[in-house]
Each structure stands twice: as C-alpha cells, then as structure tokens.
Amino acid sequence: MALVPHDGGVDRASLADFLRRRREALRPDDVGLPPGVRRRTAGLRREEVAALTGMSADYYARLEQQRGPQPSEQVLTALARGLRLSLDERDHLFRIAGHGTPSRARRSEHVPPGVVRVLDRLFDTPAQVVTDLGVTVLQNRLAVALLGDQTAYEGPARSAFHRWFTADPRERALRAEAEHAAQSRAWAADLRAATSRGVPGAQALVERLLAESAEFAEVWARHEVATHTGQRKTLVHPELGAVDLDCQVLHTEDRGLRLLVFTATPGTPDAERLELLAVVGNQFSS
After folding, report:
1. At 260, which helix (H) or strand (E)?
2. What is the pLDDT of residue 226?
3. What is the pLDDT at residue 109?
4. Angle at which helices 12-25 and 57-64 pack, to 10 degrees?
5. Cβ(111)–Cβ(251) under 8 Å?
6. Theoretical Cys-Cys bridge with 143: which of 126, 132, 178, 273, CB 3.0 to 4.6 Å?
7. How far apart are CA 96 and CA 88, in angstroms?
8. PROSITE patterns in the record, alphabetically (predicted)?
9. How far apart are the first and last CA of the chain?
C-alpha cells in the first residue's frame, strides 16, 4: 500500500503505527528499566519512551495518536535512539515523518542498538558515547552527574576539542590543571589521526582551531598522531573534588564512535566518590 503524505509530508498514520509497534516490541530490560508491577503488556509505556527520548509524555502521546506536529530531525534522532532502532528502521522513521534520511557515511552519529544496550546496563559507572571529533552523542545518568550534560552544546562547541582549545571554562574545569598540557597534546594528536583517516569535518575543525587558538597551533606543530585508546585521568567535580579514574575506550566496528567507560580502583577513596555520584545526582550540568 502506498504511503499517503499529510501535513509537511508526514504520513501520520504510518508514523503513529510504527512508533506504537516499536514501543510495544521493547521490554523494560532492553532499555535498562526495571520490569515494575501491574504492567499489562510486555512493551514499554508511552511515558517511559518519553523519558528515554527527553520529551514530554504528552508530546509523545500525540505522535502516537496522529495529532502531533511534524517531528523535527532532532526529535526523530532522539526517538531512533530511545526506541533502539537499526539504521534501516531509523531511515524509515525519517521518511514517514516527512524528512530526508540522514547520511550513512562512515562517521554517522547513529548509535548502534547494541552499544545503547551496553550503556543501559552500566548502572554503577559513568559512560558515554562520543564521535572521533569529540562530539558526545549519548550519556548515562552517572556520566551527566560526573561531567555535565555534554550533549546540549550546539555548533562548533559540540566538539570537546573545540571547547578545550577555545578555553571554555566548563571544559577546562573538568580536568586537573596539572594535566592540561598533556590533554592538549593528546587531543591534537587524536585530531591529527582523524584528519589522516579522512574523517568528514576533521580538516575544517583543524582550520577553525588554527585560526582561533594559539595553543592549538603550538601543539599541532608537533605533528604528533595517536588515536585515543584510554588513559588514567584526574577529573574535577564541583561537589566531590578531584577523582582519579581510568577511562577505557571501546570502538564501534567502523571506529566512528567510541564508548568511554570511567572506573575507579576498588576500595579506594576514588571508588567511594563515584558511589556518591548516585546521591549527588545530576546537580552538575552544563
């Protein structure tokens, strides 16, 4: 049966049906939620999908009831992640919502469902997904509590590389001052590796930073190249103070995305500080 576009090219009936069926196909443990009680079906509730995607329950309900506005590309991206859609499912969602499909270039910011499931199961340690240009696309609750909401930036500031070398005080405050010089060299080397691999947008970011940051120009001239694979670092939290953590880095198959997992040595004061993050919550946000 042919799709029938409506306002703004949206096929509201297909959009509502697709969202409902994908929601009902997910179990709570698929997205890191407890099973709960008095659940009439195995699928997720509308309010749970809304919480996973960062939108109001009323807005999401209207989409399923064929009476919402045309979703923006940002909303659709959030829905694709929240509903754990594959690339084919994501592209279908964009089409029936009246938008062109996002590029499937090697450096897509689409987070594979398997990576999202891993993130969902990391309840007691901070973790986040970043691109090879330093853009954070997904964080768990403890990562937000530790580092602030790094997904909220717009424009060039989405890249941690850009924030660091343009001396964004929030970015600089995350690292112990004694590690600033080493961090600058590490990220310049990482960015050079990205340009060498031909990562889309890497050369433009380099040119922007050369024009805006004398510090970047200095470390870039060293011609160091290395892909970030993890390191021990001291992060500074406004409530907990300095925390020494190991940052483990896992790459997706195309190496376009990285899962960063922050852990502390068991039995140390640093491990106790991480446990306190659950109490401190998300008081620290950008």
Report:
1. strand 257-263
2. 82
3. 72
4. 120
5. no
6. 126
7. 13
8. HTH_CROC1
9. 47
